[in-house]
TrEMBL record:
SUPFAM superfamilies reported for this sequence: PurM C-terminal domain-like (SSF56042), PurM N-terminal domain-like (SSF55326)
Keyword Transferase: yes
Official protein name in the record: Thiamine monophosphate kinase
Natural source organism: Desulfosporosinus youngiae DSM 17734
Presence of the UniProt keyword Plastid in the record: no
Length: 335
């Protein structure tokens, strides 16, 4: 068990719970509630410098933090309605920077149809941001559990966008990286239309805020299953960056700075119908692989298969992210 999970369980065992709450701890991306006969979902997410989001574009930074906060609501099958935040800005940020940051947040809320209802504000030598979202829940919520052996595993977009963002933060002073990637911008997706379709066919969904591998691991743990994936749809910028940095592309899959896509499972009996409706709606999804028996965690490439059942590295266990990246690369070289 990882330390973060141990601490969450330690704290939660002392907290009073409500009979109106429908989910258990870790069971869903959002907290699911019944309030006066109506379904609600609630989420709170924190961001800081440790999340390795670049700050050169304040609009993109604001967009990504708000999109990340709302993503959990979508992964639970809800629709965001009210949004609040606690914003602590760095004391060196200009008025223009803060205004563009706010415009990025507002851009997400407008696209999602959510209203801003207030929050808290502070100034500090280091920045922090916490987004808090309340959403409507119509019908049954989607959980992290419920995957069944032989289900298909799907993703709403390419793999690695968040890890590319982190790499550009970590390797930004590399002259070749700087020259090559100077104009690159990362905007996390807002998968509202996709989430509406997914909810009609699946009850098992999670966002990839901590990376695709971790998302698969959580679904497997909660469902008592495993997975086998192949032909992964890596983001093109990630493949190029991995080549420039001489790092294995599989780090885009294992890395924990996620792309905030939605990962979900579909029963064999509905896959064809889902694909037809997705095509009619011009929505694109990527099939990654299949749910397998418990204990199986494999990544199949054209030239080799990685057995990931013994992989236990976690970025949060390292004070220096570069040490973490070296250990991930070493694992991939030896497995």
């Amino acid at each position: 068990m990882n330390r973060e999970r141990e601490l969450i369980e330690l704290i939660n065992k002392h907290m009073p719970r409500s009979s109106s709450q429908l989910n258990t701890i870790f069971e869903s991306d959002s907290e699911i509630l019944m309030f006066q006969g109506k379904g609600l979902v609630y989420n709170i997410d924190e961001f800081s410098e440790t999340d390795l989001l670049r700050e050169d574009d304040p609009y993109a930074l604001g967009w990504n933090m708000a999109a990340g906060s709302i993503s959990d609501i979508l992964a639970s099958g809800g629709r965001p309605k009210f949004y609040a935040h606690s914003m602590v800005v760095r004391d060196s940020w200009t008025m223009d920077f803060v205004e563009k940051l706010a415009q990025g947040i507002a851009g997400v809320l407008k696209e999602a149809g959510a209203a801003f209802i207030g929050g808290d504000f502070g100034i500090s030598p280091t920045w922090r941001y916490t987004g808090s979202v309340i959403g409507d829940m119509n019908g049954q919520a989607m959980l992290r559990s419920g995957a069944k052996v032989r289900d298909g595993i799907y993703l709403t977009g390419p793999i690695g966008g968040g890890n590319v963002e982190a790499a550009l933060k970590l390797y930004g002073q590399n002259l070749l990286v700087k020259q090559l990637t100077g104009p690159w911008k990362t905007f996390f997706p807002l998968r509202i239309k996709e989430a509406e379709l997914i909810k009609r066919y699946s009850h098992c969904c999670i966002d990839t805020s901590d990376g695709v591998f971790n998302a698969l691991g959580i679904i497997s743990e909660m469902s008592g299953t495993g997975f086998a994936v192949s032909s992964l749809p890596y983001v093109k910028s990630g493949l190029l960056l991995a080549k420039v940095l001489n790092l294995p592309k599989e780090m885009l899959f294992l890395g924990e700075c996620g792309e905030y896509e939605l990962l979900f499972t579909l029963g064999e009996e509905v896959e064809d119908e889902f694909a037809r409706e997705a095509g009619d709606k011009k929505l694109r999804f990527h099939k990654l692989g299949q749910v397998k028996e418990q204990g199986i965690k494999s990544l199949c490439q054209k030239d080799r298969t990685f057995d990931l059942s013994t992989y236990t590295l976690r970025a949060r266990d390292y004070a220096d992210p570069m040490d973490y990246l070296r250990n991930v690369a070493d694992f991939l070289a030896k497995v």
